[in-house]
Amino acid sequence: xxxxxxxxxxxxxxxxxxxxxxxxxxxxxxxxxxxxxxxxxxxxxxxxxxxxxxxxxxxxxxxxxxxxxxxxxxxxxxxxxxxxxxxxxxxxxxxxxxxxxxxxxxxxxxxxxxxxxxxxxxxxxxxxxxxxxxxxxxxxxxxxxxxxxxxxxxxxxxxxxxxxxxxxxxxxxxxxxxxxxxxxxxxxxxxxxxxxxxxxxxxxxxxxxxxxxxxxxxxxxxxxxxxxxxxxxxxxxxxxxxxxxxxxxxxxxxxxxxxxxxxxxxxxxxxxxxxxxxxxxxxxxxxxxxxxxxxxxxxxxxxxxxxxxxxxxxxxxxxxxxxxxxxxxxxxxxxxxxxxxxxxxxxxxxxxxxxxxxxxxxxxxxxxxxxxxxxxxxxxxxxxxxxxxx
Length: 390
Hints:
Layout: E1 2-3, H1 5-13, E2 22-25, H2 28-38, E3 43-47, E4 60-63, H3 66-76, E5 80-81, E6 91-92, E7 96-100, E8 106-114, E9 121-126, H4 133-138, E10 145-148, H5 157-166, H6 174-190, E11 193-203, E12 209-211, E13 214-218, H7 227-230, H8 240-247, E14 250-254, E15 259-263, H9 266-278, E16 285-289, H10 295-306, E17 313-320, H11 326-340, E18 346-352, H12 355-365, E19 369-371, H13 375-389
């Protein structure tokens, strides 16, 4: 679950993260009043949407008076902000964060995430933050330093101080940096975060720090432990199909291709997307059926695909386990076809618990399904069927 910048800053300030301070406005008049209250000669008016590169798209504007803040807010509120991360559809700006402007001498980059290759909570950092951090790192223009923190439950003061030296934090600021990172570490673990990114982390003339922008992502599967945080989800700023899919025990992300994908397990789902792409096809979605999904939940997921006129074929890639046998998913397909009255060519690769019984269920439901012995055969067949139906 993505948090807005203002939400992340409010939460992380409780863990010692220094921020410039600001307030949220949903009208131009509120923006003017907040600017007057902040009383700073420079104020950043920042669109609150779940997307990066807001500044380049005009979603962050510096103003110098309440009247300028009102004018900037009037231009942003209710408008679509299109960035490199939103796609052409953009995101409608419904709220703004007005923040005190900061004069700094340099920008750092700091992030904390789980390294998939090591399983460790990992600290990333660079001596120069700001725009295009990924692109600059990919071009070799920027060196990203890494520090593994194990499970993140233990303070690593000396190691973090050495890390600070590697990203050229001034000697007089190293202790403050380590204290700040320790707060982020505690927040990361206690809140079940999957990403905390501060970019830029401003260094002020006195050597102190200010987090000018914060991105924070919480692990969806751990939100049951944090009902207060789950309540912060901005359902207006995400695809409503994804929200409803979550309620049906499905992880679903819409894509712009013409092949509907269904898998059980996030890793298998991602592999399915890669297989279709490698076979020359265009994935129309990512779908991970959770182990807690019933056949009716699965039917809802298939219904999403059958209701999508852009899809020309469905690739079902399932490995049945003890908690999610293959026949439950087969029943979901049969129910969805009867509900929607629409069918598409379906290619299935089934393995594991009740795989053979699932094939029998396809027949009993009248589902026309091509069964394939392996994932690559199924992927290439799904691509061929989609191209034929295009």
